[in-house]
Amino acid sequence: MVCFVRLLKTGILALFAGLFSGAVLAGEVTVAVASNFLPAMQEIGAQFRQESGHTLRIVNGSTGTLFAQISKGAPYDVFLSADTARVTMLAKAGKLLEGEGKPYALGSLVLYARDKGVLADGIQASLLRDDLRHFAMADPETAPYGLAASQVLETLELDVLVMQKAVIGANIGQTFGFVKTGNAELGFVALSQAMAVGGEWLDIPPDTYAPIVQGAGLLIHAKGNDAAREFYDYLSGDAARAVLVKSGYGVSE
């Protein structure tokens, strides 16, 4: 009887030790995500949660807005920017745990239409249609995809159209929303967004805008957070890269 009681106590202690150990191992990661990357991030995040048991909290917005928040001390662990410039700036300001971050995806810009028959034969012809009321683009000051759109317009000598017909989104997510809701017939959006919902789009020649290299940074708020480090490393793994390719992004070799 004494032996049985001892075994029972030992088993209970082992059970609580296992539960406690699992609670310690499960962590939480707050990820600041550029709007264009949100759909892919949601899929990658679901995979990461299932494989690791960690919790992810996703905050999305324009790259410029998230950068400003991080610069002012926002408690984010990982920053997934739509460019590398702002990650580098955070590194120089001492906001990263190490290095200057890393590229995690290469984005592509397209001219998108929700409805059939809106796009003409080519980018210029589509934007110069007499019956085109509005086209959408993201703010070049805060959104790298908006900057790319302004570069395309300048290269094609169509930048005068910005004042005449452009509807400016605070980020690429809002820009896509303008086209999706019909407030603009066309929009410069990320290929990943167009692929996620369907519709029609024209690929934009890559030599008309600077490469959209998207950078990731492990932020100082993540110090001592093993789950954040695990997620940061996970971005470079095969599972995440498979989602990137499926979602319309390029990946480094």
Automatic annotation (TrEMBL):
GO terms for molecular function: metal ion binding; molybdate ion binding. Gene3D superfamilies: Periplasmic binding protein-like II. Keywords: Metal-binding, Molybdenum, Signal. Molybdate binds at T63, I172. InterPro entries: AvModA-like_subst-bd, ModA, ModA/WtpA. The keyword Transport does not apply. Coiled coil: none annotated. Residues 1-26 form the signal peptide. One of its GO terms (biological process) is molybdate ion transport. It comes from the Bacteria. Belongs to the bacterial solute-binding protein ModA family. This is Molybdate ABC transporter substrate-binding protein. It comes from Profundibacter amoris.
